[in-house]
Amino acid sequence: MVTVSRREIGSMLAKQGILIAFALFMIGFTLANAKFLSVDNVFSVVRSSAILGVMALGVTFVVISGNLDLSVGSMMSFSTIVVLDLHDKIGPALAIPAMFAMTLCLGAFIGFLVGYLRLNSLIVTLGMLSAIHGLTLTYSGGQNMDIADKEGTWFSVFGQGAILGVPTPILMFLSLAALLGLVLAKTPFGRKVYAVGGNGTAATFSGIKRARTVFTCYLISAGCVAVAGLIQASRSLGSQNTVGQGLELEVLAAVILGGASLMGGVGTIFKTVIGVLILGFIQNGLLLLGLPFYFQFVVTWIIIILAVWLDIAAKRGKLWSPIA
After folding, report:
1. I want to staple 271 with a disulfide (CB 3.0 to 4.6 A). Which of 91, 149, 259, 293 is the partner?
2. Average of pLDDT values for 139-155?
3. 155 and 234 Cβ atoms separated by less than 8 Å
4. Phi–psi pair at 4, nearest 5 degrees
5. Residue 58 to residues 28, 29, 62, 204, Cα–Cα distance (Å)
6. Distance CA 23, CA 301 (A)
7. Are strands 162-163 and 166-167 parallel, antiparallel or unpaired?
8. Whole-structure pTM value
9. Which is nearest to 248 in space by CA: 111, 72, 130, 122?
10. For the chain, which domains are there?
11. Which residues are registered as beta bridge partners of 167?
12. Using one digit for the tens of pLDDT, what is the confidence trace for 221-242?
């Protein structure tokens, strides 16, 4: 007869709690509303979560490397405004690479400060949050941006198009997740990211260039933000200059929900995708139940606390503190 100890159960819940919670949420909302798992609703949720999800993919690299990036929300506003403005000035074919280049420059600057100058990532990215927001307002003159000829541009394909019935934002999100998942799990660079986040000093003595690894993680994060800005701009062909404000916290919540440790060295792209979907489906499920939209903020807070608890429990192998 096989017996399972409380310690083993606690360890299993700590390590796989996010997947168990996801399954329970899906079952509960499906029983409450039959429309919850309809094809149209699932596509709608994943599509609306694509922008958040793309940003979370890049932040996953940063968090696993032992750092934070709180600048992604304001950086997304910047990339969205820039590509919309340049669309009418130089055309979408040139506007898109120009926006990517400018966004990557911001990521490179942050990566230099955190990676090479060894400044605290929380302080640097919190400061950059305000600085990039100011840069966005300066660039736009405080005005929102709209494309003049919304009917005659192919630019809308990124946010409004579909391939074989699947919305383009979903395909972009899942394709990027598959690519970055392979990079993180199957390449030498991915192993370096885990090593730097797990023990930066040991990684340095092992010959890993810590500064270069951290710098590259911030470049990846900025690249993902540029993709998210492209989708956002293409979806509405216009935007407020504060469109990304506050998203940095939702992105970080999704990454933590996916099991990435704020202490570094732990996390996967697959589970980040699950974390993004949990946030998206919970918000959708609450609305289908007829609850006010602001109720989701309380639920999200509870889920974040649960995720942090499971993260700490996974490290000590127990759900409860031995000194509690």
Report:
1. 259
2. 87
3. yes
4. -120, 125
5. 31, 29, 7, 23
6. 19
7. antiparallel
8. 0.88
9. 72
10. 40-316 (1.10.3470)
11. 162
12. 999 999 999 999 999 888 888 8
Residue type, 232: Q
Rounded (10°) CA dihedral 40, 43, 46, 49:
-70
DSSP letter, residue 324: -
Q: Give CA–CA dist 92/234, Å, rounded.
A: 10
* Alpha carbons 272 and 63: distance in angstroms, whole number: 11
C-alpha 103/C-alpha 244 separation (Å) is 14
Q: Is residue 319 over pLDDT 80?
A: no
Question: What's the sign of the alpha-carbon dihedral 36, 39, 41, 45?
Answer: positive
d(CA 70, CA 79): 16
C-alpha–C-alpha distance, residues 123 and 142, integer Å: 26
Q: Which stretches of 218-266 are assigned E, i.e. beta strand?
A: 238-239
Q: Give the pLDDT confidence score for residue 142 in this predicted structure.
A: 86
Angle separating helix axes 188-198 and 210-236, nearest 10 degrees:
110
Cα–Cα distance between 252 and 269 in angstroms, integer?
13
pLDDT interval class at 321 (50, 70, 90): low
